[in-house]
UniProtKB/TrEMBL annotation:
Gene that this sequence comes from: chlG
Cellular compartments annotated: Membrane
Protein name per its UniProtKB record: Chlorophyll synthase ChlG
MF terms in GO: chlorophyll synthetase activity
Record-linked Gene3D superfamilies: UbiA prenyltransferase
Annotated TM spans: 22-42, 109-131, 172-192, 217-238, 244-263, 275-296
Pfam families: UbiA
Membrane topology: Multi-pass membrane protein
Single GO BP term: chlorophyll biosynthetic process
Family matches, as InterPro entries: Chl_synth, Prenyltransferase_related, UbiA_prenyltransferase, UbiA_sf
Entry EC no(s): 2.5.1.62
Amino acid sequence: MSTRAISAQPAPSAVLELLKPITWFPPMWAFGCGVVSAGVPIAGRWTMVVAGVALAGPLVCATSQAVNDWYDRYVDAINEPHRPIPSGRIPGRWGLYIAMIWTALSFEVAVSLGTAVLAAAILGLALAWAYSAPPFRLKRNGWLGNAAVAICYEGLPWFTGAAVMIGAVPNWQIILLALVYSVGAHGIMTLNDFKSVEGDIRTGIASLPVLLGVDRAARLACAVMLIPQVVVVALLLGWDRPEFALVVGGLTSVQLVLMQHLLRRPRENAPWYNSTGVTLYVIGMLVSAFAVRHLAF
């Protein structure tokens, strides 16, 4: 690569593409669920809420995307040469620099939001780097990699949203809901692996469809998505929230029906299920957040 290419700075549009705004929605939604679950009036806290949303999506999640693309740049040069780093639109080592800058920005914003948020952000950033960077490269193992992504996309943002509103560690009911929905998100991550089975085999990534086969991985993903939601229904009933339990149970039942279509042709139908069944899953998260907002702290 020429000295000119190395010294060149990337265009803002290429940086934005590297940070993948489309991936920010899940953690931002989970953060919103955390805000709702806290049961604290939002008036007077808008600045902290906006900062928290930025932390969940455009900062921590975007950091994970930059880290992933940097450490996957050689594979992407073969499979997806149009992406910002292999195409040269992010020249030299700018991909790594951006990942480091976004890590520092995430840390600075987290510091301003309190100790509980800072702890969650540090864990999220550590998992973001461990997922893609050696020596850990958690993404090479479908069990560990999917778990890291699930907790970063669902559990930690939910915890962060509640912590921002409460100003401390949330109560155990909120933490438990965030954890249970993170477990279910592991199944969602498995669905996302169906599209790249051949590439994963060639590059040595042991995703669950590679390890178990597509059909078994699909059945496992469905079970992993369903069981936590059944647990949520039981929890809501135990917390005397029967009306919310009924709604979450109804959403789960519809997902069960949709899964029958998914399992007929998992690889072909996974994108369809992501836009239907997964949508119902995240709606159930919000319903559950409303259910616990008035529980005693």
